[in-house]
Structure prediction request, 304 residues.
Amino acid sequence: MTPATALTAPAPAKVNLGLAVLTRRGDGFHEVETLMARLALADEVRLDLEPGGEAGVRLTVSGEVPGGEGLPADERNLAHRAARAYLEAYAAARRLQPAALPGVRLELVKRVPVAAGLGGGSSDAAAVLRLLARALPVGDADAALDLERLALELGSDVPFFLSGHPAAVARGRGERLTPFELPELHLVLVNPGLALAAADAYRELVGYTPRLRPERALERLARGTDPGWSNGLQPGVLRRHPELRQVLGALREAGLTGVLMSGSGSTCFGVAVDAAAAARAAEALAASQPGWWTVATRTSTGAG
Prediction:
């Protein structure tokens, strides 16, 4: 087996343009409905293969983002787990012994805050799966290696990032995806330095919510009015972390619309009329709150 040349891929962030929590499932997960939109903001993942033997998976992490201090580089990191899961599935599909597998060296540059509702870890994992599928294709045994199954086993958001859809309505745990045509939106993201685990956000859930109406929200946005989207996890998170109300208020005072917490939090966002307005709002917010992580970005409209 000849190792592939080093491969690099972006691992984009996402925002949830509305999130409905519909019910609790028998498997312990919640049934959700959410419009997920990929962003230009992205981590970077680099992958190298090394000769087989005992190399296993080696991961290095760099970058300065909220929650990134001391980010683990072992099996606690989702990118590391994704590589190991792929190697195990590849070995089973090709009927290989572990000693015949190449080692995997990963370099992860974090630009997306950790535990922030932006899907950074899930996107890193999806990028690793896609890179390994290029570097170590199964070939004739393709049917025996189900990337979508691996993605869902790693996390509920991983299937969206693996799909390459710029935007999609996600249902079930997040694995049932319907592509959604979304115009380019210019956003300002703010994270006050608070890391929130998704499990904690669901524990704070105050009640179930109606289904989404994303088409109606986008019609309102196109008319220049507030889209009125909501996040079923936001009330419980705000009750537990009332300091996020200041973030939401600051985004509204900056003249942004559609202000909302993304996913399980704690990053909040608002929509600007164009890229210049987003840049001005981000600059003003960063100046007034230097302790906050503040970024202007946009939704991505191309497949990838």
